[in-house]
């Protein structure tokens, strides 16, 4: 057995980054490893005064040389930041792995890779963005031309979650900055390390002071609330729980600030009897248990057409029981721990509730026993249920752990009604080899995203977001450029 992946010594004390300087504070909190409960680092919590300094620095930077930069210059800068991340790739991987316990392979191939792609893609999209142009003739015979110009929103507040830390932060910072804004980011209190490295990358890349600022802390009564309540921010981009999104919306309502929300999900996967069976089993195992089920897009509700239901459940059970749980750098490891003890308590409470609600446990349902020091980590078994009623709490509430319920269905109409019967609407997945059905069903999902015969493959030029409690607005590609810009129409009489 290998030892847990440890944080590089440089990340033992995590400071804020404000106005181009790393800033210490007196109030500190622990960054705790989910692998063994050890304290990885002391995090310097920003108070209201430091958050104010960050917002004021961001405001000043807008009025300084940054405000005069062209998209080409900003694109070059974002590419320079991406270059630094590439050069310090292993440190970023170590930071992500240490904070979350995820597999090294995931941190390399998904998280840090995507961080680089986020910065590079939005740099190029922003540099090459087109604006609109219309020729108009009025009823009186006047000839007009109308064209649009994009301007920055101003100071953007960005609040991110712990489940995909560096991926989420760069997904927001890249487009915000290419559009000419300045930004104050607050990472989750659970995952402060890669955000601190990102601040180092901005510093090393020579980005002017005040353009990118980082404040550490919690939500309520801490940096998150101080930032979103600050009167001098212009917009909030938030990823996290729906309840938190609602709190932030109330906070910014009086100032009528722009918001973009990527929130929770209770996503459905629909498996038709005509699917490629093995690909569907593999795909649903992935969509249910990736990142220990801690992806907003994970399928917690799986509906399988009755003729293949029993076979599918047995195949899912067999495949799930082969998943290897363990330390991030163990050979062949598939799943790491959950993010924290508190979160595991929450997930375990759903494991208990499901049985009280009448679920049949197909596999999992508890914590793995290793018989070594891995028992100190926040590991949990991937779990499959059947037999729950559609209105059970475990069928309606987001668990955000490695869990899915599998239910049989008999018709397209029935399954769509059940899949769409949710307060959430983030992502739908369907598995079928019938082309017409794929297109027909896909557009009837009441979600912002649909995957057919795959899950979580992304083209960053496409829109991303949810409906209902899953979010507000879309980001990705030109949708990000639209959100992070004020568009002004200019009408000229010829
Ligand atoms: P969370 O809402 O608890 O926290 C997210 C961030 O908000 C953290 O940085 C936290 O400190 C901050 N925060 C909390 N309360 C705040 C307040 N009152 N004011 C300002 N900031 C506050 O979410 P989490 O537990 O970190 O993340 C998991 C959730 O995120 C899940 O519901 C998941 O579905 C969702 N998520 C959604 C997407 C998406 O794209 N739709 C992506 C990732 C995660």
TrEMBL record:
Could you tell me which species this protein originates from? Variovorax robiniae
Q: Which UniProt keywords apply?
A: NAD, Oxidoreductase
Identify which residues the record assigns to the active site: 262
UniProt name for this protein: 2-hydroxymuconic semialdehyde dehydrogenase
Q: In the record, what terms sit under GO molecular function?
A: oxidoreductase activity
- Short name of any one Pfam family annotated for the protein: Aldedh
Q: Check the record and name the InterPro entries matching this protein.
A: Ald_DH/histidinol_DH, Ald_DH_C, Ald_DH_CS_CYS, Ald_DH_CS_GLU, Ald_DH_N, Aldehyde_DH_dom, OHmuconic_semiald_DH
Start and end residues of each Aldehyde dehydrogenase domain: 25-489
Q: Which family does it belong to?
A: Belongs to the aldehyde dehydrogenase family.
Q: What class of enzyme is it?
A: oxidoreductase
Q: What is its EC number?
A: 1.2.1.85
What domain of life does the UniProt record list for this protein's source?
Bacteria
């Amino acid at each position: 057995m290998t030892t847990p992946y440890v944080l590089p010594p440089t990340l033992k004390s995590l400071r804020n980054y404000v106005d181009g300087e790393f800033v210490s504070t007196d109030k500190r909190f622990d960054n705790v490893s989910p692998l063994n409960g050890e304290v990885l680092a002391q995090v310097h919590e920003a108070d209201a005064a430091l958050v104010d300094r960050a917002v004021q620095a961001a405001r000043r930077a807008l009025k300084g040389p940054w405000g005069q930069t062209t998209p080409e210059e900003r694109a070059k800068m974002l590419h320079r930041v991406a270059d630094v991340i590439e050069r310090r790739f292993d440190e970023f991987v170590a930071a992500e792995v240490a904070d979350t316990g995820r597999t090294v392979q995931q941190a390399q191939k998904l998280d840090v890779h995507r961080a680089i792609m986020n910065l590079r893609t939005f740099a190029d999209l922003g540099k090459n963005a087109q604006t609109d142009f219309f020729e108009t003739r009025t009823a009186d015979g006047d000839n007009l031309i109308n064209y649009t110009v994009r301007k920055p929103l101003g100071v953007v507040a960005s609040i991110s979650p712990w489940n995909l830390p560096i991926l989420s932060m760069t997904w927001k910072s890249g487009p915000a900055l290419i559009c000419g804004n300045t930004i104050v980011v607050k990472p989750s209190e659970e995952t402060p390390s890669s955000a601190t490295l990102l601040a180092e990358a901005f510093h090393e890349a020579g980005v002017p002071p005040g353009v990118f600022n980082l404040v550490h802390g919690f939500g309520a009564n801490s940096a998150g609330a101080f930032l979103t309540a600050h009167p001098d921010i212009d917009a909030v981009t938030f990823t996290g729980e729906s309840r938190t999104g609602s709190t932030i919306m109330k906070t910014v309502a009086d100032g009528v600030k722009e918001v973009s929300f990527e929130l929770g999900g209770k996503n459905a996967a629909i498996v038709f009897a005509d699917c490629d069976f093995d690909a569907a089993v593999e795909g649903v195992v992935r969509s249910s248990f990736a990142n220990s089920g801690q992806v907003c897009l994970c399928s917690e509700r799986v509906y399988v057409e009755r003729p293949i239901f029993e076979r599918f459940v047995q195949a899912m059970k067999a495949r799930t029981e082969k998943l290897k749980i363990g330390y991030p750098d163990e050979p062949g490891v598939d799943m790491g721990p959950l993010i924290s003890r508190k979160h595991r308590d929450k997930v375990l409470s759903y494991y208990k509730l499901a049985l009280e609600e009448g679920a049949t446990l197909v596999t999992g349902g508890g914590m793995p026993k290793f018989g070594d020091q891995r028992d100190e980590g926040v590991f949990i078994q991937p779990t499959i249920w059947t037999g729950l009623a559609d209105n059970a709490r475990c069928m309606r509430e987001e668990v955000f752990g490695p869990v899915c319920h599998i239910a049989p269905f008999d018709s397209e109409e029935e399954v769509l009604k059940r899949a769409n019967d949710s307060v959430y609407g983030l992502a739908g997945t369907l598995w079928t080899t019938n082309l017409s059905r794929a297109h027909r069903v896909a557009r009837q999902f009441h979600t912002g995203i649909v995957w057919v015969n795959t899950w979580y493959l992304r083209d960053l030029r496409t829109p991303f977001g949810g409906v209902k409690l899953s979010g507000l607005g879309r980001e990705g590609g030109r949708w990000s450029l639209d959100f992070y810009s004020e568009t002004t129409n200019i009408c000229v009489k010829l």
